[in-house]
């Protein structure tokens, strides 16, 4: 049996270029160097964390940073999170390319309505040698692994037989695979591109990096949370995350 392993790659994110002409002059609004938001010093471009701060300051035209507690990007976003003013976080987005996940997982993932998705097409892509994703609960269960192997062999035998029969009858490859994919189970591997703004990713982590969540999607959420913490630490790092993520507490309260 061919099995797939989870792989999550951050492939896109917001880049912010501050505009000219703030405070009545022609200089660009600049962030303090230790904020870890500068991407390209030569061109003065920043990441999504800077855009979130800029968007919040635009509401009140508070460019002068007179409050030391919110003078840095980390301090400003901590205040935003503490006051649950999450709308400014919707301006910045992150995109992941996710492979080694099952169709069962993506059936749950697409319930997050604020994400944008582009998923592998089983009608177009040949699945004659597709990998399976073993549910985490079955990883150390020999009997379950035997059952998965039997299901894998049966599914691929039926799939390949159906494709060949349809091709012999004059169907196009796409039409033949369209008919044959009905034999592929939920554990068949899929690949998907997912884009979401910071607020959408926060909601995803609250719901899916949670002891009550499905084990496979929680495994995905843990990896995404780790990568987001490295990419945007002022929103997804340990300290700021404690301001908005109550998933563990919710799970304990419901136990």
Can you walk through the features of this model?
The chain has 255 residues and is an alpha+beta fold. Among the domains are: 14-90, no CATH class; 123-183, no CATH class. Helices cover 44% and strands 15% of the residues.
Tally of alpha and pi helices:
10
Largest sheet, spatial ordering of strands: 1-5-7-6
Enumerate the spans where pLDDT stays under 50 for 5 or more consecutive residues.
none
| Overall form | elongated
Helix content: 40-55%
- Which value, in Å, is the CA radius of gyration? 23 Å
Span of the ends, CA to CA = 37 Å
Q: Mean pLDDT across all residues, rounded? A: 91
Short description:
The chain is of the alpha+beta class and 255 residues long. Helices cover 44% and strands 15% of the residues. The chain is elongated and about 75 Å long.
Draw up the topology in text:
Layout: E1 7-13, E2 15-16, E3 38-40, E4 45-47, H1 48-60, H2 73-82, E5 93-102, H3 103-109, E6 116-119, H4 142-168, H5 173-180, E7 189-197, H6 198-208, H7 215-231, H8 233-236, H9 238-244, H10 247-254
Antiparallel strand pairs: 1-5, 2-4, 3-4, 5-7, 6-7
Helix pairs in contact: 1-2, 4-5
Could you list some keywords that capture this structure?
single chain; 255 residues; alpha+beta; four-stranded antiparallel β-sheet; three-stranded antiparallel β-sheet; 10 helices; 7 strands; 15% strand; elongated
